[in-house]
């Protein structure tokens, strides 16, 4: 048990890059936090953290141990919750990753309702356009929009997001409104590429035979994040093709205007993915069920 407590303390220090902040977070004296990490390093016979007067960073061994430690603590929490009934509070940590728009517009604004039901749970929520390595980085589950490539993971299909073609009213004022595919030749598109330097295919749409087609358009801006993609559209840099989920409030305010609705991209599937475990932890199962309810409003 002492080793488990020391591992929990090390994880908190590693996450906050500070002994003082970890001590405050854990409601422990700073000396106790330092002693716990020193004891752990002595037991493992390796240095886990680089300490200076200003910063605390993990060593290469520390980074390796951190990833394994997350799994150890997760398994310990699973054992603790193994015989907990549904009407009793769950404990432990849930590590989840999802797209920025999903976390910003839906999950974080409503997360307090889930934590009120389970006040002893702790959520670690990652939200970026980077596709994390679910198993290596110790995530319990991830929400992904788009086609799947992770064959080693279990996928729970939630539905799909409709994709809209949009421009800002500022763009319309300066460039006019494209009304036909031929008009696109004289208009601009905002390019999106997770890896800059790799061009996107341009304006994509399904033709009358349900085949995906693309049209090359002029562009002055390429971005690699969904937040920048939306911001570029709102500031008039060109047309974007994006799920309705992340732009609904901008459509309602008329900051964005839908164009060429008859030439739409295929709907984007949305899934919850999780590692292939024989027994899904109760806390993760409860959170995934809650996630599904939150996202069902936007899926079809």
CATH domain fold name of the largest domain: D-Maltodextrin-Binding Protein, domain 2
Beta-strand content bin? 15-25%
| Count of helix runs | 9
CATH homologous superfamily (4th level) name of the largest domain: Periplasmic binding protein-like II
The order of strands across the largest sheet is 4-3-5-14-6
Radius of gyration, in Å, reads 23 Å
Quick one: CATH class of the largest domain? Alpha Beta
Mean pLDDT: 86
List the secondary-structure elements in sequence, H or E: HHHEEHEHEEEEHEEEEHEHEEH
Task: Name the CATH architecture of the largest domain.
Answer: 3-Layer(aba) Sandwich
Largest sheet: 5 strands, mixed
**What is the 3D form?**
elongated
Q: What share of residues is helical?
A: 25-40%
The span between the termini is 47 Å
What structural class do the secondary elements suggest? alpha/beta
Low-confidence stretches: none
What does this structure look like?
This protein is α/β, with parallel strands linked by helices and 300 residues long. It folds into 3 domains: 1-83, Arc Repressor Mutant, subunit A (Orthogonal Bundle); 85-159 and 267-300, D-Maltodextrin-Binding Protein, domain 2; 163-266, 3-Layer(aba) Sandwich (D-Maltodextrin-Binding Protein, domain 2), CATH 3.40.190.10. Helices cover 38% and strands 22% of the residues. The protein contains 9 helices and 14 strands. The chain has helices spanning 2-16, 19-26, 30-44, 60-81, 100-117, 169-175, 226-234, 248-252, 282-295; strands at residues 49-51, 56-58, 92-98, 121-127, 141-145, 153-161, 163-168, 191-192, 203-206, 212-215, 222-223, 240-243, 256-258, 268-275. The strands form 5 sheets. The protein has a 5-stranded mixed β-sheet with strand order 4-3-5-14-6. The chain has a 3-stranded antiparallel β-sheet with strand order 12-7-13. Strands 1-2 form a two-stranded antiparallel ribbon. The chain is elongated, with a radius of gyration of 23 Å. 30% of the residues are buried.
């Amino acid at each position: 048990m002492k080793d488990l407590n020391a591992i929990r303390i090390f994880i908190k220090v590693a996450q906050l890059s500070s002994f003082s902040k970890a001590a405050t977070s854990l409601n422990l004296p700073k000396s106790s936090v330092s002693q716990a990490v020193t004891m752990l390093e002595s037991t493992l016979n390796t240095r886990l953290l680089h300490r200076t007067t200003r910063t605390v960073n993990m060593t290469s061994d520390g980074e390796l141990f951190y990833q394994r430690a997350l799994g150890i603590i997760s398994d310990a929490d699973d054992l603790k919750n193994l015989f907990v009934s549904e009407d009793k509070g769950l404990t432990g940590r849930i590590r989840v990753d999802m797209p920025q728009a999903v976390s910003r517009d839906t999950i974080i604004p409503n997360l307090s309702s889930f934590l009120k039901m389970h006040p002893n749970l702790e959520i670690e929520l990652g939200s970026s356009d980077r596709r994390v390595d679910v198993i290596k980085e110790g995530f319990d589950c991830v929400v992904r929009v788009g086609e799947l490539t992770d064959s080693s993971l279990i996928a729970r299909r939630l539905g799909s997001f409709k994709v809209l073609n949009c421009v800002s009213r500022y763009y319309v004022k300066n460039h006019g409104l494209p009304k036909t595919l031929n008009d696109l030749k004289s208009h601009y598109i905002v390019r999106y590429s997770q890896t800059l330097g790799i061009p996107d295919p341009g304006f994509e749409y399904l033709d009358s035979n349900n085949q995906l087609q693309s049209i090359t358009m002029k562009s002055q801006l390429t971005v690699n994040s969904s937040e920048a993609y939306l911001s570029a559209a709102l500031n008039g840099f060109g047309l974007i093709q994006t799920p309705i989920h992340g732009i609904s409030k901008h459509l309602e305010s008329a900051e964005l205007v839908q164009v060429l609705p008859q030439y739409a991209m295929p709907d984007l599937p949305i899934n919850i993915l999780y590692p292939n475990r024989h027994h899904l932890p109760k806390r993760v199962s409860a959170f995934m069920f809650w996630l599904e309810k939150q996202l069902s409003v936007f899926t079809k």
